[in-house]
Every structure is written in C-alpha cells, then in structure tokens.
User: What shape does this take?
Amino acid sequence: MTRPLLTLVCCFSLLATISCSGSLFKVKPAADLPPLPAEARITNAGGVTVRVAPLLTDEQCQDLFEANLPLAGVLPVRVELAFQNDATVEMKKVKFHLRDDQNREWKLLPPKKAVSRIMSANGVTLYNPNSKKQFELEFGAYAFDLKTPLASAARRQGFLFFQSPDKNAVTSAQRLTLTVERLPQTASIAIN
Assistant: This one.
C-alpha cells in the first residue's frame, strides 16, 4: 500500500514541477515596449531632459506583466533621461523621489522587491523557485538601469517601481510628483 502511494506522490510532484517550470507571470519581451508617448511629461534640468510617461493603466500593466501592479500597491513610472552636456553622470548617485499630494514619500523598489510585493498581493505562496527567477529576469528587463554610468549625449529609459506609502492599491486620483536629484540641476515633474 505504501509503494503505490509513494509512486503517486512522486508522479504528482513531477507533474507539478514540470507545469511550473515557466515564469510565474507571462511578461512581454522588453523589446516590444512601444516608444514613450508624445504626451509624456517633460522638463529640463541643466542639460538633462527628463521625460515621464503618464501612469500605466491596469490594462497596460496586465498587457506587459500579466499582473495588476497598481492593485499590489506598486506603481510603475516610465522615465527617460537624455543628456546633452559633456559630463558623464554617475547613475548610482542620482536619487529619485516620488511624493503624493499629502507629501508622503513613496518607496523606490528594486525589481526583485517589486516582484515579491506582486506575488504577495496575488497570494502566490507555492511556486517553483526557477519560475520566480524567470519572472524576476523578465520583469527586471524593464527596470531603469541605476548602476551603469551614463556617457555624454546618451539616453536611458526604463521603469522605476514605487510602493505606495500604506501598501494599498494605487488610485488614479492621487497627484504625484517625481523629483530627480543629483543631476546638474534638480528636476521636479508632476506625473499625473
């Protein structure tokens, strides 16, 4: 009796592992991301142009990440920096701050923490570790590179992921301002 039960458990485990071998969520390839829309917000800060796309809708999040990030309290903000001057900027020193109309600071999340927040909000507790790694890789491909220095006359874009102060769902009614510090000049731009 124990041998058939053991065989059944092994078969079930194998099937569960095989079925969970892909990514947890189906993320669209980053190369398929359309260019920043013409209505993106824009400001100049001492030879650096900062462009911020309007906030993603639930549908856009579902299309890109197959996950509802705003419901998880994670706000993806698409940012582009374009440098016109000759100085190289150390991106590690550049600081991004997001504040709402109540002057509350939103926490900037690295992609791995954003993934953990999304999984927690969606109640994902049992998963194949390789599936999580795959999701982290695919999700991280959209992230704004904060480590590599940016040469003069260069352009960089990607998503910054912010967590709402109370970890509640993000609503479109919130007025948010993105501030970028440690550029030649501080840039501040209303993103909605």
Remarks:
- The longest strand covers residues 74-83.
